[in-house]
TrEMBL record:
A Pfam family this chain is assigned to: Amidohydro_3
UniProt name for this protein: Amidohydrolase
Domain Amidohydrolase: 41-475
Keyword Ribonucleoprotein recorded: no
GO molecular function: hydrolase activity, acting on carbon-nitrogen (but not peptide) bonds
Coiled-coil region: none
Matching SUPFAM superfamilies: Composite domain of metallo-dependent hydrolases (SSF51338), Metallo-dependent hydrolases (SSF51556)
Keywords, sorted A to Z: Hydrolase
Length: 489
């Protein structure tokens, strides 16, 4: 922690005034025209913009750290092409080789174990994390050698991945810590980790043994609810021994699957299949588990993507009457938008998915996409939004989500349902846990930008120049030769 730091000539917020920012003991002590009573480091920002640090409100930390080291399958246009990419990158040894990022919703052929080398342990993970595709040797490693296709969905796939030989904990911790440094370079000061693990224990170990650059809210998998209750964990509490940098997060529960896997639970059937997706947790069971968590001070975070799943999640919150989160809410019934305005409910959304999924949504949710990824309608209805990436489904970079929320595109294509675009100020607040400007008394979790984001083009908004990031009053990103003199916008 930096005990005393003065940032001079900082542009406060979007189009705001020039002020000095005094940081003491990890908090913003003062924001005023001139600070003279100062001892310690002083940095002249010369008109650079200071905003609250960003939070990525939906991350799978270990999967993101590993995905950065896996074979990229995002460009595969068929199952055969994905299999060929894996075959071209097989190492000489017999270790498990993993690929990540395939999207099979529009492929002309089907994934199958027969396309992969039978004797080599090969695993392919879909971009949405809801489908995994195993070779014969990889199936044998997890006790599923007789599986007919090697293609596993939802919980079956999650359990199979967990059963694979894992990297040594020390190595994985180092990869995760490195990824937090990369996040800090994008202005990130915190994240909500939804890894399917004992996140409280894992992050305590990382903070002891690694250089971690962000705060972490540590979610609890539904399977770990009883243990969390026994440990006395409560959502929002600071984790003992973390120096105030870790907090207990919500309990993750699933109503349905995903769009790309066609397991999102919807009112209308998917074209050509007759199926409406997969219901993972019926309403009565969901409400019962939510009520158990709430009685012990643990807030639920309910995964719901299809419109029927989202409605079930809202029904459960109304039945239990507790605070919590609905994660994704990608397709919403027209009558359900207003139900998101209930006190204590947060809609955890991932705007970068909208341009990624638009073709799949146009195909499988045809005629309903006006209420898909409908962030403007959610805001207008009074919902509280928090932006996440769902990394590794999208990069751990909130600017990707901010720009997608504002522009409704991420390339040369015209905006997709531009009526659902949100103002930049709202997008920034949703990516910073509701903080929209820098105020005295706030934690000193700040980012310093070369230019005011409101002056940037859409492409520049996706990749702004981050001159520095402070978390708890200490520098977590401060490149050499930064903060040099520049014109004031």
């Amino acid at each position: 922690m930096s005990s005393n730091l003065l940032l001079r000539n900082a542009r406060i917020g979007l189009g705001g005034p020039l002020r000095d920012i005094l940081i003491t003991g990890g908090r913003v002590a003062a924001v005023r025209e001139s600070v003279t009573d100062h001892l310690g480091e002083a940095v002249d920002l010369e008109g650079a913009t200071v905003l609250p640090g960003l939070w990525d409100a939906h991350v799978h930390s270990a999967q993101w750290a590993q995905a950065r080291r896996r074979i990229d399958l995002s460009g595969a246009r068929s199952a055969r092409e994905a299999a060929d990419l894996m075959a071209a990158n097989l190492p000489p040894s017999g270790e498990v080789i993993m690929g990540y990022g395939f999207r099979d919703a529009l492929w002309p052929d089907e994934p199958d174990r027969g396309l992969l080398p039978e004797a080599r342990p090969v695993v392919l993970i879909s971009n949405d994390l809801h489908t995994v595709w195993f070779s014969g040797a990889a199936l044998a490693l997890v006790g599923l050698g007789g599986h007919p296709t090697g293609v596993l969905h939802e919980a079956e796939g999650y359990h199979a991945l967990v059963a694979l030989p894992a990297p040594p904990a020390e190595l994985l911790d180092r990869w995760v810590a490195t990824s937090t440094g990369a996040a800090a370079a994008r202005g990130v000061t915190g994240m909500l980790d939804f890894e399917l693990a004992d996140n409280v224990t894992d992050w305590l170990r990382r903070h002891r043994e690694q250089e971690v650059a962000v705060r972490v809210a540590c979610s609890i998998p539904r399977a770990g609810l009883d243990e969390a209750i026994a440990r006395g964990l409560r959502t929002g509490d600071v984790v003992a021994g973390s120096g105030g940098l870790l907090e207990v997060g919500p309990v993750k529960m699933f109503v349905d699957g995903s769009l790309n896997t066609r397991t999102a639970y919807c009112d209308d059937p998917y074209p050509g299949s007759g199926g409406r997706g997969r219901l993972e947790t019926p309403l009565a069971e969901l409400a019962e588990v939510m009520a158990l968590a709430a009685r012990h001070g643990l807030h639920p975070a309910v995964h719901a993507i299809g419109d029927l799943a989202t409605s079930i999640a809202l029904d459960a919150f109304e039945r239990v009457g507790c605070p919590g989160r609905i994660e994704h809410a990608q397709l919403v019934r027209p009558a359900d938008f207003g139900r998101f305005a209930r006190p204590g409910l947060i809609a955890g959304v991932q705007p970068a998915h909208a341009p990624d999924d638009r073709e799949v949504a146009d195909t499988h949710w045809h005629g309903r996409t006006g209420r898909a990824y409908a962030y403007a309608d959610l805001l207008a209805a009074g919902a509280t939004l928090e932006i996440g990436s769902d990394a590794p489904v999208a990069p751990l970079d909130p600017w990707d989500g901010i720009a997608s929320a504002v522009t409704r595109t991420d390339d040369e294509r015209p905006p997709w349902h531009p009526e659902q675009a949100v103002p930049l100020r709202d997008a920034l607040a949703a990516a910073a846990r509701g903080r929209s400007t820098v105020r005295a008394g706030d934690p000193a979790d700040l980012m310093i930008l070369a230019r005011d984001p409101s002056l940037l083009t859409p492409e520049e908004l996706r990749r702004p120049e981050v001159l520095g990031t402070l978390m708890d009053g200490r520098w977590t990103h401060r490149p050499p030769l930064r903060l040099t003199k520049r014109p004031v916008d």
